[in-house]
């Protein structure tokens, strides 16, 4: 039965990838209007989280109408993430070539200087999350290594490996045992891509995020400390008229202190980069649908 379900989902995603983009965006916008009415508990948590981000960014608490609009956009952009995932195998490279503007070509060139050693590129569940990996592959001429959690459905697992491997130019590896593979890749001067804004497993490392204590996954910071690789935060933000803007920020990895002090220092820098980039379009950060700050969950 799971195989049948997997093939049905793949068929649906393949069908979606062939629909006109304007139609799909229209569907996402419609869901933005009606989704909060159907998923009230999810909308309520998103509203509290989004209010925190707006207040930190703007210095004043948002109005109710501002939050209403923000939550609607959050629902819309969450659907657009799934649309982009479905379309990525057929369209990602074309989008990058014609519709992605890089904020700083110079910063991107510097990040891919081969004689500077390995590099870790960290993203959030934010914006067009499928595009940074493809940009990494295109700009570096290499196959970035990216761990992926094991899916419960083996048919979907194989399909996702093929999509993100062949379609986006990545080398996808299993999360189990990924640390050793990533360390070896960095030692050879390669590139590793991670997503690091949700602390799903473990205790995480406490940092200040949008003005309040939160926990970030330890992986990227610890890997940077142990490997000596450069650490970057990357994001691609959706703009009007189907365009995108790509951003990259290098994060300083402290050179002194013990391993945990240096790891925490790196993650403090990651949090600051997240604050800046997410602050440009908080409605595209769909981690806001999940618990982030303990004090908002009571």
Would you kindly provide a written description of the structure presented here, covering whatever features stand out?
The chain has 298 residues and is an alpha/beta fold. The chain has one domain (2-288). 53% of the residues lie in helices and 16% in strands. It contains ten helices and nine strands. It has helices at 2-17, 21-38, 40-58, 64-99, 105-111, 131-140, 154-167, 178-187, 219-227, 259-278, and strands spanning 100-102, 119-123, 145-148, 171-174, 191-195, 205-209, 212-216, 230-238, 244-251. Strands 1-9-8-2-5 form a five-stranded mixed beta sheet, with helices on both faces. Strands 3-4 form a two-stranded parallel sheet. A two-stranded antiparallel ribbon has the order 6-7. β6 and β7 form a beta hairpin. α1 packs parallel to α7 (154-167) and α2 (21-38) packs antiparallel against α4. The radius of gyration is 19 Å and the shape is globular. The N and C termini lie far apart (39 Å). The mean pLDDT is 87.
